[in-house]
């Protein structure tokens, strides 16, 4: 029988499709069989246990496949409560200082280093979180040292002065990075106070600042939540938590949020009103244009009212803003996100471009498109 090259290629393609389908079918069948036998996927191999020590709410995640332990303490306060710009951030630095009665001022950090661990902390709008990881054999001693930070924080004039220098260094370093500058711009457009802090915001009256910090700590560092992940047994984790963290705390409750959109109907007319453009010279060679638009709060709403808008801006078909910009060769790609800053949300558009000189044309198209909503 005479078989042409064209027919041979067709038969080969059909054979490949059938072979691929059979392999895929076998894999699916095998997975279904495994699931029917009751084997849980890896995502659910950890066991979660909730318990309370005094008024401290604790979550233990047991994972037999890890050799390290991961610890986190969350405090129910953040930069939105600042009396002085950067106050919560400065207190975060002060809490992570070893108490004065210890011989080794960096005892916690040195202990982590000798047990393959490290620590860090961050302050957001609504919370402050301290966390670390360590090889499990060193967990008990590390918890003892970690608990000292929350019992006797070093809120003294000399430590305040030194940590202000560290906070200011973070601020000065951030000014040289586009990501930090854009983040700060988001804060400004959202009407949020300066949350990082620097030498100018804190001043040099360390005695007065000490009083403010101690009052802030006494008021807000009584609502905390503790999370630990380890391969130890639950009974051992409870013993360690009760031993080191029986702290006098208030009950942690979810604060009530207000919805500006619901309470003030006049604000609805200003939804997605584009009225301010800021040009920022980047510090890197990357060419991009960012559009930042403050939005009304969505707290208490039964759904995210901005998700449909986000979808229509950057979806892949021809009706989106991204497609319209690409048709005119104005952008290479575009990413759209909804970012929360304090009690505000921000619509954030990041566009990779070949020519930043066309930013005005891009902004005009974005303005016209957004006005449709």
TrEMBL record:
GO terms for biological process: proteolysis. Coiled coil: none annotated. Gene3D superfamilies: Metalloenzyme, LuxS/M16 peptidase-like. The keyword Transmembrane helix does not apply. InterPro entries: Metalloenz_LuxS/M16, Pept_M16_N, Peptidase_M16. One of its GO terms (molecular function) is metal ion binding. This is N-arginine dibasic convertase NRD1, Zn2+-dependent endopeptidase, insulinase superfamily. It comes from Pseudoloma neurophilia. The lineage of its organism: Eukaryota, Fungi, Fungi incertae sedis, Microsporidia, Pseudoloma.
């Amino acid at each position: 029988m005479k078989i042409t090259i064209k027919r041979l290629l067709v038969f080969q393609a059909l054979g490949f499709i059938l072979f691929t389908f059979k392999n895929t079918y076998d894999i699916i069948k095998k997975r279904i069989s495994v699931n029917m036998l009751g084997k849980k996927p890896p995502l659910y191999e950890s066991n979660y246990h909730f318990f309370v020590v005094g008024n401290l709410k604790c979550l233990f995640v047991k994972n037999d496949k890890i050799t390290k332990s991961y610890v986190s303490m969350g405090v129910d306060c953040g930069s939105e409560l600042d009396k002085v710009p950067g106050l919560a951030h400065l207190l975060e630095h002060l809490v992570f200082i070893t108490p004065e009665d210890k011989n080794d001022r960096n005892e916690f950090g040195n202990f982590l280093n000798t047990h393959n661990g490290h620590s860090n902390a961050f302050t957001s709008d609504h919370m402050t979180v301290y966390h670390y990881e360590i090889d499990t054999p060193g967990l008990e001693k590390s918890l003892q040292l970690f608990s000292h930070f929350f019992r006797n924080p070093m809120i003294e004039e000399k430590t305040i002065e030194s940590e202000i220098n560290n906070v200011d260094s973070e601020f000065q370093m951030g000014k040289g990075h586009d990501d930090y500058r854009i983040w700060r711009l988001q804060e400004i457009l959202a009407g949020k106070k300066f949350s990082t802090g620097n030498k100018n915001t804190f001043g040099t009256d360390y005695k007065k600042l000490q009083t403010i910090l101690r009052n802030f700590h006494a008021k807000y560092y009584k609502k905390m939540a503790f999370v630990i992940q380890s391969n130890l047994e639950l009974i051992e984790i409870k013993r360690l938590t009760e031993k080191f963290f029986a702290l006098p705390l208030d009950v942690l409750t979810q604060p009530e949020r207000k919805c500006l959109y619901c309470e003030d109907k006049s604000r609805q007319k200003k939804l997605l009103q584009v009225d301010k453009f800021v040009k920022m010279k980047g510090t890197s060679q990357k060419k991009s244009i960012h559009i930042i638009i403050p939005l009304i709060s969505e707290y208490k709403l039964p759904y995210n009212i901005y998700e449909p808008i986000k979808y229509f801006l950057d979806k892949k078909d021809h009706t989106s803003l991204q497609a319209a910009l690409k048709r005119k060769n104005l952008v290479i790609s575009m990413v759209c996100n909804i970012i929360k800053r304090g009690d505000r949300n921000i619509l954030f558009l990041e566009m990779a471009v070949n020519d930043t000189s066309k930013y005005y044309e891009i902004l005009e198209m974005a303005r016209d498109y957004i006005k449709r909503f």
